[in-house]
Amino acid sequence: RGLVLEDRASGVVGALVEFNPPRLVLRDRHGKDHTVRYAPGSVRADIDGKGVPVALRHPAPDPTGPSITASGSIDLGDVPARVARAGRIWVEGLHDAELIEKVWGDDLRVEGVVVESLDGADDLAERVRGFRPGPGRRLGVLLDHLVDGSKENRIAAEIADPDVLITGHPFVDVWQAVKPAVLGYRAWPEIPPGEPWKEGVIAALGVDATPAEFWRHLLGKVRTWRDLEAPLLGAVEQLIDFVAPPEG
């Protein structure tokens, strides 16, 4: 506790106040707590003026202790799903929704959070207005390729509502948010701008499959949050906490 760390995915800097793997709580200089997801290499400390990645250690899990869900949360067992909240989490496409269900499905059912696919975000501002967000009807949006200068970044900039939170990851496609190691690759191929990304990846890997077939294979290799990249983990955790804030 007290160690000042920077979360590399979100840029949050703060003192370590809680570490309950994989969740990490950092308190910034204004006294605000930020919950981020820890993964090896996801945080760094200022050592001799340099940002050095650090590994946080914790006791080995007790084999007699509670089981853990795919997202790293404590499995609450056979708990009835909560009645769906008025709030929603929107994602750009079906693959995003399926990946979130695979890893966070148990958490979402306990919290009563529904994830919906937008099938594209070009008309996001109009759809947000139609949703009519409010304090009891919060909206979280996950965007792909949310980086400076991207179309998605411009779309996000059009929306300013205290009851709407837009997060994202830097990857061109959510496929890239799955660690390539799950398929035995060291890295995803680099596809030239303007070329269809999914088809380009499949061709570069020499795989005889349609995008839908390749995705089913890739999704089937995902077991837990450890198979996903830190930027996606942090973005989804922020949205869940926003739409379903901790009670008490």
Estimate the strand proportion.
Answer: 15-25%
SS-derived structural category: alpha/beta
Biggest sheet statistics: 6 strands, antiparallel
Total domain modules: 2
What does this structure look like?
The protein is of the alpha/beta class. The chain has two domains: 4-53; 70-248, no CATH class. It is built from six helices and ten strands. It has helices at 94-111, 124-131, 151-157, 197-205, 211-221, 230-243; strands at residues 4-7, 13-20, 23-27, 33-37, 43-47, 50-53, 88-91, 114-117, 139-143, 164-168. Strands 4-3-2-1-5-6 form a six-stranded antiparallel β-sheet. Strand 1 (4-7) and strand 2 (13-20) form a beta hairpin. The longest helix has 18 residues, at 94-111. The chain is globular, with a radius of gyration of 19 Å. The chain starts with a strand and ends in a 5-residue tail after the last helix.
